[in-house]
Amino acid sequence: MYKVIGATKSRALRVLWMLEELGQPYEHINAGARSPEALAYNPLGKIPALVDGDAVLTDSVAIMTYLADKHGRLTAPAGSVARAHQDALTFWLIDEFDAILWAAAKHSFALPEERRVPAVKDALKFEFERSAAILSDRLDGPFLMGDEITVPDILACHCLNWAIGARFPRTDDKLFHYGKALRDRPAFQAASAA
């Protein structure tokens, strides 16, 4: 059985959701960043961490990719052109969604108060809106890569949820409904309740 270390209201939700979609059992240790529990699995204290046997894996996207490859679901096959397109979208989401939201979070609460530059958040919201429009244009079906949910959908939806919580401007109707449909999935509901 897998063990997931990390608070539900963090990037650990991505891993929990992935495991629910895969139908894999797991133990969840609800721990915050830099907590004693997190430090026991990652010397940097970052969350999430995934324990699989003797292996401890870190970084939510690396963990999701590992799980998708290991179980042969929610991903295109490694070495395929479809996988290269999927990976390109995943990396784009990390750069253009996740990084923007994390920068806003740093200037809201993560950095020491004297290091925060609150004015930067307006520029980050502009960048996020521009990226959301690009993602919306790319969305041509129920999921980003076609007719089935994949790793980029979990990442994109988590970021869209994060943007809502951070009071970023609402995305267009297409992305709003896409995110709502993903949040309505039983696996998302189960992971959120973990």
TrEMBL record:
Pfam families per record: GST_N_3
Start and end residues of each GST N-terminal domain: 1-75
Protein name as annotated: Glutathione S-transferase
Domain of life, per lineage: Bacteria
Species of the source: Roseobacter sinensis
Domain spans labelled GST C-terminal: 79-194
Stored Gene3D superfamilies: 1.20.1050.10, Glutaredoxin
Organism lineage string: Bacteria, Pseudomonadati, Pseudomonadota, Alphaproteobacteria, Rhodobacterales
